[in-house]
Write a structure and sequence with these properties.
Blueprint lengths: L1 E3 L1 H21 L8 H18 L2 H10 L5 E3 L3 H18 L4 H5 L5 H11 L4 H49 L8 H52 L4 H9 L4 H19 L1
Antiparallel strand pairs: 1-2
């Protein structure tokens, strides 16, 4: 289930507020707006990125920007709980009973692993198949991250190109000193736009995607170990302790507290 990511929304709103506030303290909004500077900085940065990537990757990476506005509920505790539930089913009814349980699972990666186990696939082959898929998932994530890092790299560079173009235009009108200040100001706006594109949009987007990817990869690694433990017929309690080893101590304590709470409610 995905919801709006309040951190991204809040960061963008706060950033816009601080930028506009600082501009208004020093002058007028109109002094910091220039359509030609937007074209050369943002247009140029994305044009250079388009040259750097195949068209299909460019389109996919642009679409992937929407991910930073969505918060997917990735809960390690829920994954471990689900695996323990599956291990209990496997111990009581056998591995074939997992096929029916898999139908209620939304995670296609975990479902694929369960079906491989149900089909009697060799454990080493199950691990190889799932880990290979994991490697390619991580690779696709890194491609998208690198795209936005590249936009962040090109933004300031195109800002500098815009500044140079503005300075050249200014030098051509040096015979009229009254235009120098205005032309210099417009020339420097492109540097501002390039820095904003890099440090307010592109690089934060790339970093948020990296954080999301690391969480997703961790959950899939937990799933692989959990499914292989089920296939090996290990005790659910042993599986739980093994999977908790993937988590930070704070998350382990949180899971233990939740479990204690649930047991208390049941006993109560």
């Amino acid at each position: 289930m995905k919801t709006l990511d309040l951190a991204t929304i809040g960061g963008l709103v706060a950033g816009i507020f601080f930028i506009l506030s600082s501009i208004l303290m020093k002058g007028q909004i109109s002094s910091f707006t220039d359509a030609a500077s937007v074209m050369i900085t943002i247009g140029g940065a994305f044009a250079a990125t388009l040259i750097s990537y195949p068209l299909s990757d460019f389109i996919k990476s642009i679409k992937a920007a929407s991910l930073v506005f969505k918060s997917k509920q990735l809960n390690e505790g829920d994954i471990i709980k689900k695996i323990i539930e599956l291990s209990n089913i496997a111990r009581k009814e056998g591995l074939l009973a997992l096929e029916e349980a898999a139908e209620s699972i939304d995670d296609e990666f975990m479902k694929k692993g369960i079906l491989l186990i149900v089909d009697g696939t060799d454990p080493e082959l199950v691990r190889n198949i799932l880990e290979t898929e994991l490697v390619f998932i991580e690779g696709r994530h890194k491609n998208v991250q690198s795209f936005w890092e590249k936009v962040g790299e090109f933004g300031p560079a195109w800002g500098m190109i815009g500044t140079l173009i503005g300075l050249i235009a200014m030098l051509k009108t040096m015979n009229d000193p009254s235009t120098i200040g205005g032309n210099m100001s417009v020339a420097l706006i492109t540097t501002l736009y390039g820095s904003l594109l890099a440090n307010f949009i592109a690089l934060p987007f790339a970093n948020k995607m990296k954080v999301i990817s690391e969480s997703e990869i961790l959950l899939k690694e937990v799933s692989i170990e959990g499914l292989l433990s089920i296939q090996a017929g290990e005790n659910p309690r042993v599986i739980e302790e093994k999977l908790k080893a993937f988590l930070a101590p704070s998350l382990r304590n949180e899971i233990s507290k939740n479990q204690d709470g649930e047991e208390g409610e049941i006993n109560g």
